[in-house]
Amino acid sequence: TAVNLVVIHAAFPWVTRATEGTGVSGLTGDLKDLTPRWYTEVGYALVLSMIVNSVSQRVQTLVRHWHFQRKRTAGRQSAVTQRQLNTAYDGAEFVMSTRYGEILNVIFVTLTFSAGLPVLVPLAAVSFMVHYLVDMFEFTRVSKLPPRFNSQLAQGACDMLTYAAIGHLLFATWAHSFYRMDADPFVYALLGTYLETF
Known about the structure:
mainly alpha
C-alpha cells in the first residue's frame, strides 16, 4: 500500500503523454516532487496506514481471545467426553508467517520513507512494542504452541532487509535532493534568525 500511494500520486509526464487520448487513467498523478503538498497528501496517508495496520491486527487478537473464552466456557458446560473438553480448550493456530509479514511491512515502510518522514521511526518502535506485548499475550493465552521452526524463516527475513536498505537509499536521495521548499513562516519565526547567523 505504501508504494501504491507514492505511485498513484506521482506525476509521470512521459506516461501522461503516451496514454493521452487512450482512456487509460493510471499513473497520472500531479505531484512531481516532495513538495509540502506531497507531505499532506501522501505522507499523511502513509503515517495513517501505518497506525491503522498495527492497531487493526492487534484488535483481531483481542477478538480471537474473546471468541476463545466463549468457546471454552461453552465447552465446559456442554462437554460430555474428555475429547470434547480438550477441543474446547484448544487454542487457535499461532500463524508465524503472518507475524513475519506484519513486521516486515513495518520495517520496509519505515526504512523506505523515514528519510522524508522521520515520524515513522518512533511509530515503528511503538508498533514493535505493541506487537511484542500482544503477541506474547496471544501466545500464552489464546493460541496453541506453534510447531518448532528452524532458522530458515528468520534468515529469509534478514536477507530481505537489504532490499529495504536499497529503498531507503533511493527515497533518501529523492527526499534530500529537493531544495525548492519555501521556509515555513512559523519555524522561520522561531529559528530563522538563529539559522541565518549560524
